Amino acid sequence: MVDLSGRQFGNILIVKLSAIGDVTMATPFPRGLKMLYPEARIDWLVEPLSADVLRGNPFINEVIVWERCHSMRVKGLKGAWGLVRDLRELAGRIQGRYDLAIDLQGLARSGLAVRASGAAVRLGKKDSREGSGWFLTHKADVEAPFYRASEQYIGILRRLGLSKPPQSMEIYPDADNVAKADALLASAGVSSEYAVLTPATTRPYKHWSDEAFAQTIVLLERELGLTSVLLGSPKDREMANRIMAMSGESGAVSLAGETTLRDAAEIIRRARLLVGVDTGLMHFGIAMGTPTIAVFGPTTAQRLRDEPNTRVLQRAGPRRTDNTINRKQWWDDRSIDQNTPEDVIRVACELLGKGATKTA
């Protein structure tokens, strides 16, 4: 078990490269480090897709974007040569700058990045995977379930000596994001209370059907008077348009592909409600203090059940409570479809303190 409590560090590198939801869950970490080391410089190494989550965070001095870390996913000699090139480039940027580097990812690419920093103390989880533990000098035996990533980060802070680590996720939209949200909502004609829907996910077993989201749009408007605003990336535009077409004459609008992550966070902050599947933008609802309904299928939702102002819909129950089951076994799992739009409205009424009217 690592014991670094009492030691002081002046320059700290956090390595958490992806994904958007996981990076969002790790955002309390720099605040906790600042509580331990008030004078320290704290930088964060991240992949491009997740970088905007961290920008504007007052506890992070520099967000370092690793543009080329995709080479880790290329197989064969081409991938190996690309990896060598990328690591050399990365080492040229970060080597020798830090006395403490912390691997929050626990995978091969993050372990290599931590090693490239040259930090004398390289800390990570004892149960790191893909051989990344070989690159660590200290390992924390974090007593938290596999599926509660946020509690693992908190556990590492406890091992560093912080008895009461912060737990609230943090995203910081700036004035430009506020102005962009104003403009987008105005141009879409959204002038009343609205709900944000985040339907897109990269995993088929996490995807609630288009039909279910379309019916949810209809019910949110009819029962709660909420216009639906769909958010997502540029590649989610087709899905969003398809869902809106299925919702008939509703007033739903799509801003998929029109926002940065912090633009989306600001739009979510203003929303009366967020309804989403297990995806990065769903976590923004929790981070921004917006009442959130998370629709789950086979994956565990335990990490969300204790979040204030958040409700999990999961009629079937999780299929996994640890990391021993291969996720490929779930690809055809459709247990998420046991959740219904009527379930969303019922839970939304509980969250918002409104009585539902009778649905047809």
Task: Describe the overall structure.
With 360 residues, the protein is α/β, with parallel strands linked by helices. The protein folds into two domains: 11-159, Glycogen Phosphorylase B (Rossmann fold, 3-Layer(aba) Sandwich), CATH 3.40.50; 175-352, 3-Layer(aba) Sandwich (Rossmann fold). The protein is 35% helix and 14% strand. The chain has twelve helices and twelve strands. The strands form two sheets. Strands 3-2-1-4-5-6 form a six-stranded parallel sheet, with helices on both faces. Helix 4 (108-117) links the parallel strand 4 (100-103) and strand 5. Helix 3 packs parallel to helix 4, helix 6 packs across helix 9 (261-270) and helix 7 (210-224) packs parallel to helix 12. The protein is globular and about 60 Å long. The protein starts with 10 loop residues before the first strand and ends in an 8-residue tail after the last helix.
| CATH superfamily caption of the largest domain | Glycogen Phosphorylase B
- Tell me the strand order in the biggest sheet: 3-2-1-4-5-6
The proportion of residues in beta strands is 5-15%
Based on secondary structure, the structural category is: alpha/beta
Low-confidence stretches are 356-360
In CATH terms, what is the architecture of the largest domain?
A: 3-Layer(aba) Sandwich
Give the biggest sheet. 6 strands, parallel
CATH fold naming of the largest domain: Rossmann fold
Cα end-to-end separation: 59 Å
> What is the CATH domain class of the largest domain?
Alpha Beta
Question: How many individual β-strands?
Answer: 12
Compute the number of helices: 12
In total, how many domains does the architecture comprise? Answer: 2
Order of helices and strands: EHHEEHEHEEHHEHEHEHEHEHEH
- Which whole number gives the mean pLDDT? 90
Q: Radius of gyration, rounded?
A: 21 Å
Approximate shape: globular
* Helix percentage range: 25-40%
